């Protein structure tokens, strides 16, 4: 396969773990220059050291909370000042927080998810896309979810944020019509990352249980799909890839036949 990634400047939000980190590795291996952003700068430093030694590519790291609009604006100005104009933006930073019925939902969890998954994605897009418009090219990849297609019990607000990512991806595509900028979305089903640990507020046992009895996607599987999207020729806009584990056909249809935990076996799949 032709490598159209080499030499591209790629900004990844939420690059300190999971899917974002796997993208960093895959894209560094393909010869891209990386801009990695997340709140945990120590992790980003480690990733930079490892990847730049292994692949000899330029990697800049920035501490960034995508919820903080002022910080995102400052960050985008820094990028401009350093002539780091992203060719590709991967809007990956996101989380699920809590799993409660709507009627007893936790307000802090709601704010975290809405502020990160919707407003954070908007903040970054609002400041980065104009740079792409000015440059005359660019590609935005939004990380949605299977949860943006089907609502599951207690998923309520997380589901809503991922439905919103679909709407925003469609909106971006329409609003950027007439430019060369492409907008894509990747929608994974259950992927084994720190996602569940974050959702269960650090409860590792609950997180581990969730992945029992079936083989989930790996972060690398999702990174491969993102690579495929951004490596397409300039005239091809892959608007969406929905990928699930083979054991998961939709949020309710999960084959956990080897699982001994009856709750897990009959449970839905909280992606
Ligand atoms: N894993 C799944 O099953 C699954 C399925 C479908 C979709 N997704 C989506 O995939 C994306 C990545 O999740 P993941 O599975 O890789 O989970 P993860 O391992 O927990 O990684 C999440 C990343 O997002 C970053 N992040 C969270 N809040 C942030 C903020 N306010 N500002 C900047 N960065 C922030 C985290 O970094 P810091 O904590 O260092 O800031 C971390 O790097 C999310 O959008 C998630 O909704 C995941």
Q: Compute the average pLDDT.
A: 95
Q: Tell me about the largest β-sheet.
A: 7 strands, parallel
Q: Please, what is the CATH homologous superfamily?
A: NAD(P)-binding Rossmann-like Domain
User: End-to-end span in angstroms?
Assistant: 31 Å
Uncertain residue ranges: 260-266
Strand content: 5-15%
What Rg is obtained from the alpha carbons, in whole angstroms?
18 Å
Domain module count:
1
Identify the CATH architecture: 3-Layer(aba) Sandwich
Shape: globular
Give the proportion of residues in helices.
40-55%
Strand order within the widest beta sheet = 3-2-1-4-5-6-9
Along the chain, the helix and strand elements come as EHEHEHEHEHEEHHEHEH
In this entry the ligands are: NADP nicotinamide-adenine-dinucleotide phosphate
Structural class, please? alpha/beta
Q: Please give the CATH class.
A: Alpha Beta
Total number of β-strand segments?
A: 9
How many helical stretches? 9
Tell me what you see in this structure:
Helix content is 44%, strand content 15%. With 271 residues, the chain is an alpha/beta fold. It has a single domain, classed as NAD(P)-binding Rossmann-like Domain (Rossmann fold, 3-Layer(aba) Sandwich). The strands form two sheets. The chain has a seven-stranded parallel sheet with strand order 3-2-1-4-5-6-9, with helices on both faces. Helix 5 links the parallel strand 5 and strand 6. Helix 1 crosses helix 8 and helix 3 runs parallel beside helix 4. NADP nicotinamide-adenine-dinucleotide phosphate (NAP) binds next to helix 1, helix 4 and helix 6.
């Amino acid at each position: 396969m032709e490598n159209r990634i080499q030499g591209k400047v790629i900004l990844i939000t939420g690059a300190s773990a999971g899917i974002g980190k796997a993208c960093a590795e895959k894209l560094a291996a393909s010869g891209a220059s990386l801009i990695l952003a997340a709140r945990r700068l120590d992790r980003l430093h480690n990733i930079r050291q490892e990847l730049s030694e292994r692949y000899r590519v330029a990697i800049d790291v920035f501490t960034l909370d995508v919820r903080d609009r002022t910080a995102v604006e400052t960050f985008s100005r820094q990028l401009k000042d350093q002539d780091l104009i992203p060719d590709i933006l991967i809007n990956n930073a996101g989380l699920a927080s809590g799993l409660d019925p709507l009627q007893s939902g936790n307000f802090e969890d709601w704010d975290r998810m809405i502020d990160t998954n919707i407003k954070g994605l908007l903040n970054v897009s609002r400041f980065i896309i104009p740079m792409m418009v000015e440059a005359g090219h660019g590609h935005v990849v939004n990380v949605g979810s299977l949860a943006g297609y089907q609502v599951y019990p207690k998923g309520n607000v997380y589901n809503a944020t991922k439905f919103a990512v679909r709407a925003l991806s469609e909106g971006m595509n329409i609003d950027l019509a007439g430019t060369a900028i492409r907008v894509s979305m990747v929608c994974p089903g259950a992927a084994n990352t720190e996602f569940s640990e974050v959702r269960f507020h650090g409860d590792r046992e609950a997180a581990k249980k969730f992945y029992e009895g079936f083989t989930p996607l790996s972060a690398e599987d999702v990174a491969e799909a993102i690579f495929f999207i951004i490596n397409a020729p300039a005239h091809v806009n892959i608007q969406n890839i929905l990928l699930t584990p083979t054991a998961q056909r939709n949020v309710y249809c999960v084959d956990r036949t080897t699982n001994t935990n009856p709750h897990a076996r009959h449970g839905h799949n909280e992606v």
